Amino acid sequence: MLTKRIIPCLDIKNGRTVKGVNFVDLRDAGDPVELAQLYSDAGADELVFLDISATEERRKTLADLVLRVAEKVNIPFTVGGGIASVEDVDILLQNGADKVSVNSSAVRNPELINELSGKFGSQCITVAIDAKQIDGEWIVHLVGGKVPTSLNLFEWAKEVAARGAGEILFTSMDNDGTKDGFANAALARLSEELTIPVIASGGAGTIQHFVDTFTEGKSDAALAASIFHFKEIEISDLKKELDNNNIPVRL
């Protein structure tokens, strides 16, 4: 059985790590280079680095910061934010990223997923999907959750998988920052309907929430930010408890 992955997420705005609730009310959470090294040393399985204002401000991910982070870590490292072309990905991979995450640009130009997976391999391509429930239906949102689309979460997830995405990073906007737990019903459905890994994001507040998303949500990996940034949960303690619950993890 494949081990479940624990993934700290560094949301970057103006060169600093930030964290909010329901995608707003951002507060400073520290230097991304220092945090990246800390998590790598603490036993995180991967890192995700998202320049959350890159798409909104129509600028490219801070490639120099990616390079500085990559120099400090020895675990896989995914970078996202404002990626819209093969050239963008090429720069990031050259600067040390192992994978890239695309979101808004993939919705606007779905063929981009085919192009990127064809050029770099599906193992390099993560498609991030931000969604929230509207009238009982999970609706995909863009530009850091600011712009609703007409896309259904599950239909879009199946399309991106068919186009060559290597994994899905699903963030529930309803759960984001609440610390009330992951959207496990939606995650379980995604895991059942897809043949690629699903990363749970949005809502982690306790160790039990991770146990629940790996069992009830059938998630392949779980991503969190503030609980790690503000040392509410230590990765070593989390992994020990997961192991105690017979959930396979890298100790």
Q: Quickly count the helices.
A: 10
Average residue-wise pLDDT? 90
**Can you give the helix content as a percent range?**
25-40%
Instruction: Spell the H/E element sequence.
Output: EEEHEHEHEHHEEEHEHEHEHH
The percentage of residues in β strands lies in 25-35%
Morphology: globular
Helix/strand/pairing class, anyone?
Answer: alpha/beta
Radius of gyration: 16 Å
Short summary:
By secondary structure, this protein is an alpha/beta fold. It has ten helices and twelve strands.
What does this 3D model show about the protein?
The structure is a single chain. Helices cover 35% and strands 28% of the residues. It has 251 residues and is an alpha/beta fold.
Keywords:
251 residues, alpha/beta, eight-stranded parallel β-barrel, 10 helices, globular
Furnish the topology, listing elements before pairings.
Elements: E1 5-13, E2 16-21, E3 24-30, H1 32-42, E4 47-51, H2 63-70, E5 77-80, H3 86-94, E6 99-102, H4 104-108, H5 111-120, E7 125-134, E8 137-142, E9 147-152, H6 153-163, E10 167-172, H7 184-193, E11 198-201, H8 207-215, E12 221-224, H9 226-229, H10 235-244
Parallel strand pairs: 1-4, 1-12, 4-5, 5-6, 6-7, 7-10, 10-11, 11-12
Antiparallel strand pairs: 1-2, 2-3, 7-8, 8-9
